[in-house]
Amino acid sequence: MSTLLTPILLKKDLHELKIVSITLFACIFLFLVLSIIQLLTIGNIDNHDENYGQYYRVEFSMKLVTSISIFLVA
To answer: What is the DSSP string of 25-69?
Structure first.
C-alpha cells in the first residue's frame, strides 16, 4: 500500500520545494532591490569607526531592515 502512495507523496514534496525555491528567489530579488536603493540614496560609505560598540546595540531603523535581509539571504 505504501508503494502505491509513494508517487503522491513525492509529488507533494516536490510541489512544496517549488514554493520554497520561489520564495528564495523572491528574497534574493528583494535583497538586490534594497541594496541598490540603499546604494543610490546613501551612497558608498567608508567605515572610519574606532569604537565598534555601536554594532552590538539594536536600533530600529532602515539599517535593521537591511541587516535582516542580508542575514536571511546568507
So the answer is: HHHHHHHHHHHHHHHHHT-------S--GGGGS---SHHHHHHHH
Tell me: the pLDDT tens digits for 19-51?
Answer: 777 888 888 899 999 989 988 988 777 777 788
Q: If residue 55 lies in a helix (H) or strand (E), which one and from where to where?
A: none
Distance CA 18, CA 33 (A): 23
Q: What is the pTM of this model?
A: 0.47
Number of CB atoms found within 10 A of residue 7's CB: 9
Closest CA to 72 of 17, 15, 32, 14: 32
Burial profile 40-58: b = 16 or more Cβ within 10 angstroms, e = fewer: eeeeeeeeeeeeeeeeeee
